[in-house]
Design a protein that fits this description.
Helices cover 37% and strands 10% of the residues. It has 973 residues and is α+β, with helices and mostly antiparallel strands. It is globular, with a radius of gyration of 34 Å.
Length: 973
């Protein structure tokens, strides 16, 4: 029996989702409500053909307004028998019945009765609830139950009307686990000493004061900002690649780090969103405010050859409009791209008026993703300061010695195929002008009298002109097929031979040695030097060292020419910027390879490579006034079908644009946060409520329009929205109010009566219990295993993935190189997101590909999720680490104590004896199997010592730990 119960804990949870209309009303009211009773019928049965879309309105009949419905006697107020609407929905004549047979089932008897009674009562229309400004409601009186704040009054009132009672509080340890995971995404035990002490104080004495103290500390923790950023990344469709078939890397992670800081410091919601929409337009905007606009540069960019840049620019602009209204106002607007919205009051003309706000930005689907902001992250600046000090100290030492290299400034620069050159202040040579398919650079230098040249150094330097990459091609790649050096003597030129070459990096089959052959065939795959690094790609300075077969001894001044040939398989792969230096030391290439060329110089060069240059992050910038685009209505949404010209404007059915606001993105942000906007605050508080309870007061977070599901507690939603605005859009204050309510703190247990009346817990007669997101599942596992890295910020990391090679059209794809060290165990927030192939863990646990704004993740429970958490190498590593903690931290050495300790670490409560018993049997079973096959234990632990008894025990305990990390109680909160 015990084993059967435990097996049930490990099995899949089957969720039965019930659709509830007219939530929990016990009796039918005599007065018909248009919004509650009639609008849902008209919206589902009539409005698609008889609604706002004038271009597809049938019989010239409009039923979404009182004027339209009464104009043709479809509705005769007070006279249902005289109303054509009633006649059409009641008739048995298939030719006359509405809706027509091909449009679905007719109305039910109950629906027809509602329509009749509504018309008898005058057939009055109401503005859709979401388009009426929220107002503060007096909390209802309740006669029983725990009331911590007004949330509980609103919730308890409905609970008691339904004949239910409030659940008791959750057990203190379970409540602390829920609270910590909800606010920080991490379990209670991994926080700083002060927070852990406050949690312990609450466990000893579960008072409201002690609870509020824990809430404050969790909201102030660094983990809070990281955890809540994940929600925003879904809204922002954040990814580390540009999407479409090529799906190349995009350096946009500094925006993610900006967002972490903004959330952690509790930047007011209106300010946060305004900076993301229009930070560049704020007066005297800072670099941080400009960086914020990368929010809308997360749109996709199509770099495939032959595509129309204007088409895909337009797609990106439409996505920005859709994301803005969806994320911040809960409206779906893409319908109106092709025709007026069929359900909500958004005309096609208004759609393109709104589009004009976003249509004036500089970006235009160019391969280089411009415009970009040069931005040096704070951690890079701090690192650079330390490196520069070390370099300065070493250079002072080096200055006391003869220089190893002499940088040569060219006297003459030429190109075979039309490239132009600019010699910069640091003596480097920048290629400019047209980009030929193939070319040969020719740089002529003078070697002063008496100098000897035994070797050459070529530095290839990233340049912002080429998006911080080393090559001129949009990808940043280059292939040099041959280097030659010619010396001019008596009016002729003699080629000097190179005997050796070395480079700091050559990609496979593109070695630097191939470039010193006297004859080359650039069409061979193994010919030429190329530097595509698996991690750094083309963004790092590279250098090559060459040894002359015979030294060049300059008697009088000697003129030499360096030839740099680009004649490879692929066109346009030419170097962007380079610098040339010579040396007189023997065998420089060999000594460079052996790291004996000059240890001091080698150290300086190594440190210089670690200096971080400013990143170039895609941001929004508006075109100058003289270059502003004209915005037109697009016929059927086709960018090439331009119809009437429109200018920026807002939705006529909502509040007007204040005259004090500019007609640009900054003005639109002001309109969104205007006190008269009925949607913004409601949408925001509903989103935060949903993240804490698993479902919003409005379930359809993405749709507050007429097709969305109405709020279960409209007065509570309105009151929270008004309070949120009055607080100065204080998110932490909102979260604190919710989590300090008695409603949030309830036990999640459910009895048969509550399950029958409120199966989905829409009344919140009990506490939430929901499947955690991919990020929280992995981060919690890392935390309880002791592996979690505390490192914050920085470039994306690559935790182990079963998919090692990702192939994309035209770009060659990428090889997933697993991160090592602490990067392997960083929070999931920092994982590299490739749109065309997200990490399997994230995809399996319901994260979108981030192609478009994702308002909510629809939680699933599939066998694939169990396969992932049981078998993925990361979870096996975490199970090993947890097993080690069970051994090293258990108060006793017996197996039962170790297992109990593992359960306590994972579940944050005392282990239940029957669980320890079952897992002990599992341990003994695994031990017997490993004793019979020690190689299986070695494979499980990634070790080779097959004779160690300790190995067999650790492997058996790892099997147990793996099960603990897959318990239903562990994966749900």
């Amino acid at each position: 029996m015990i084993k059967s119960q435990f097996a049930n804990l490990l099995g899949s949870l089957v969720l039965t989702v019930c659709f509830v209309s007219h939530c929990f009303s016990q009796q039918q009211s005599d007065q018909i409500s248009f919004n509650d009773d009639i609008r849902p019928i008209l919206s589902s049965k009539c409005i698609s053909c008889h609604g706002p879309d004038e271009g597809d309105r049938h019989a010239d009949l409009r039923l979404d307004t009182f004027e339209g419905a009464t104009e043709m006697d479809s509705i005769v107020p007070g006279e249902p028998d005289e109303s054509e609407l009633i006649a059409r929905v009641e008739t048995d004549d298939e030719d006359s019945r509405m809706p027509p047979m091909e449009h679905g089932d007719g109305l039910t008897k109950e629906e027809i009765d509602l329509l009749r009674r509504w018309i008898e009562q005058g057939g009055g229309y109401e503005t859709h609830w979401a388009f009426v400004a929220p107002k503060q409601h007096e909390p209802p009186e309740v006669t029983a139950g725990r009331v911590h704040n007004e949330i509980d009054n609103f919730i308890l009132s409905e609970v008691q009307k339904a004949g239910l009672t409030q659940n008791p509080p959750a057990k203190p340890n379970a409540l602390m686990r829920r609270l910590s995971l909800d606010l920080t995404g991490l379990p209670p035990s991994v926080h700083d000493e002060a927070t852990v002490a406050a949690i312990d104080a609450f466990l000893l004495e579960a008072t409201e004061e002690n609870y509020a103290n824990v809430v404050d500390l969790l909201l102030d923790s660094e983990a809070y900002g990281e955890h809540w950023t994940s929600m925003w990344l879904d809204l922002a469709r954040y990814a580390d690649t540009v999407g479409y078939s090529g799906d190349e890397y995009r350096e946009i992670w500094p925006w993610r780090d900006w967002l972490i800081d903004a959330i952690a410091e509790n930047r007011p919601y209106d300010q946060l969103v305004t900076e993301m929409l229009a930070g560049d337009l704020l007066p005297e905007s800072t670099a941080q405010q400009q960086l914020a606009t990368a929010f809308h540069r997360n749109t996709l960019n199509n770099n495939e050859g032959g595509t129309n840049d204007e088409e895909f620019r337009t797609i990106a602009v439409k996505d920005r409009l859709s994301t803005t209204l969806n994320a911040f106002m809960g409206l779906t607007v893409r319908c109106a791209e092709c025709h007026s919205h069929k359900y909500d009051p958004i005309s096609q003309t208004e759609y393109y008026q709104l589009l004009d706000f976003f249509n004036q930005t500089v970006d235009a689907d160019k391969r280089d993703d411009r415009p970009k902001l040069e931005y040096l992250p704070r951690q890079y600046a701090e690192q650079n300061a330390k490196l520069e000090q070390k370099i300065s100290d070493l250079e002072k030492q080096a200055a006391k010695r003869p220089p190893l290299w002499t940088v040569r400034r060219p006297d003459k620069t030429e190109s075979r195929d039309g490239t132009k050159f600019e010699v910069l202040d640091d003596e480097s040579i920048l290629a400019t002008g047209k980009l030929p398919n193939y070319d040969e650079y020719r740089f002529t230098f003078t070697i002063p009298s008496g100098e000897t040249v035994r070797g050459l150094r070529i530095e290839v330097i990233p340049d912002k002109k080429y998006d911080g990459k080393v090559g001129r091609a949009p990808s940043g790649a280059f292939i040099v097929t041959q280097f030659r050096l010619g010396v001019h003597e008596n009016g002729s030129e003699r080629l000097l031979e190179f005997s050796d070459a070395a480079a700091d990096f050559s990609q496979p089959n593109r070695h630097i040695l191939s470039t010193i052959k006297s004859k080359v065939d650039g069409k061979k795959f193994d010919q030429g030097w190329a530097v595509n690094h698996p991690k750094d790609e083309y963004r790092v300075r590279r250098e090559a060292i060459f040894t002359l077969k015979e030294p060049l001894n300059s008697g009088p001044e000697t003129e030499v020419t360096l030839y740099v040939l680009h004649d490879g398989e692929w066109s346009r792969l030419n170097v962007g910027r380079m610098r040339v230096a010579t040396t007189s030391v023997d065998s420089p290439a060999k000594r460079y390879r052996d790291k004996t060329l000059d240890p001091l110089f080698t150290e300086i060069a190594s440190l210089k490579k670690q200096i971080k240059t400013p990143l170039r992050v895609p941001v929004l910038r508006d075109l100058p006034q003289a270059k502003r685009r004209q915005t037109h209505v697009m016929g059927r949404g086709n960018f090439a079908s331009k119809q009437e010209k429109v200018s920026a404007g807002v939705l006529s059915q909502l509040h007007a644009m204040p005259d004090t606001l500019p007609m640009n993105r900054l003005g639109m942000a002001g309109w969104i946060f205007d006190s008269e906007n009925p949607l913004t605050a409601r949408v925001a508080v509903n989103r935060y409520w949903s993240r804490l309870f698993g479902i919003g007061i409005v379930e359809t977070e993405e749709d507050f329009g007429t097709q969305g599901i109405p709020p279960t507690h409209p007065e509570l939603l309105d009151s929270l929205a008004v309070d949120f605005q009055a607080s100065g859009w204080d998110v932490k204050q909102l979260l604190k109010k919710i989590v300090t309510s008695a409603t949030y703190q309830q036990s999640p247990s459910v009895d048969s009566k509550a399950h029958e009346i409120d199966p989905r817990n829409l009344l919140w007669s009990r506490g939430p219990r929901i499947r955690m997101t991919a990020e929280v599942i992995r981060d919690q596992s890392l935390a309880v295993s002791g592996l979690l890295s505390q490192k914050k910020y920085g470039p994306p990391v690559y935790p182990p993935s079963p998919i090692k090679r990702i192939v994309n059209a035209f770009t060659g794809g990428m090889t997933w190189v697993d991160s090592q060290g602490e990067d392997r165990y960083r929070r999931t927030l920092y994982t590299y997101i490739k749109r065309s192939q997200p990490h399997p863990l994230l995809e399996t646990f319901d994260m979108s590909t981030r192609d478009v704004c994702s308002m909510r993740r629809l939680r699933t429970n599939t066998p694939l999720q169990s396969f992932m958490t049981l078998n993925d190498i990361m979870f096996v590593e975490m199970a090993r680490a947890l097993a080690d903690r069970m051994v090293n931290e258990s108060p006793s050495n017996d197996v039962e104590s170790r297992i109990a300790h593992g359960l306590e670490l994972a579940l944050y409560r005392d282990a239940k004896p029957w669980q320890v018993e079952v897992l002990s049997e599992l341990y003994q079973s695994a031990l017997a199997r490993f004793e019979a096959d020690p190689s299986a234990a070695a494979k499980m632990m990634g070790e080779t010592d097959l004779k160690s008894e300790a190995l067999l025990q650790r492997a058996s305990l790892t099997v147990v730990a793996n099960v603990i990390l897959n318990l239903d109680d562990f994966l749900n909160n």
